[in-house]
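Notebook entry, structure prediction.
Reason for the run: the old model in the group folder had no record of what sequence produced it. Starting over properly, with the input documented here first.
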Amino acid sequence: MKAVILAAGINSRLREVAKDIPKCLLKVGNTTIIEYQIKFLTSIGRLRLQDIYVIAGHKIKKLNYIKDFGVHVIYNPKYKEFNNIYSFYLANKFIDDDFILFNGDTLADKRIIESLVNSKHKTAFVVDNVKELGHEEMKVLTKDDKILKFGKEIDPKVAQGEYIGYAKFDLEDATVIFDCMRKLLKEGKTDLWYENAINYVLDEINAFAVYTNGLAWIEIDTPQDYYKALKEVIPQILNPNA
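New structure, fully documented this time:
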């Protein structure tokens, strides 16, 4: 098993708090988002984790220190031009096994991650099935827990929840996804979210939802998200029994 963390974004909406660092380096308690993710990934013995790859772009030199944790930092030269389909696709050069995927701006209760790891499904996406949905969220349609579609354009009234940016992939399914992304990129479809690209092959893979069931998580995309995280969410994540 390997792990991939997508952390190449340019922080366009977080400059007030992220300033000159990648947002995965924002402080959360006594650590940073990415250090929390790395620490937890390496603590799960069942994963038998071989390698962690961080796909980076914006202010990549600030991330060099995480190599001391045995992490590979991979440069995305298109981080300013392309959407995150390209960061995901770059992982194909290093993936020869099943893998866990984290978005580098998202923190979640350890129990959510454990549910993902322990899921009987080899390819699974963590879905918040409790949150009230709006138009900005990456929403999900499912049937009997099988993923049918991802999309921000999905009507919140019919969606089963929001995909939170944590997933795991069977190597066979990942190969199908990487092949599809290669074709889409060759066609110039560089502005896609990776979830939109996965939509093209959902009928070829077995992708299922794993639900948060009300456990805490947060995507830090704006200053308001960060302040909310510090005040409300991170205390729950770092001290779940408090």
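Summary: The two ends are 32 Å apart (CA to CA).
The old model has been moved to the deprecated folder.
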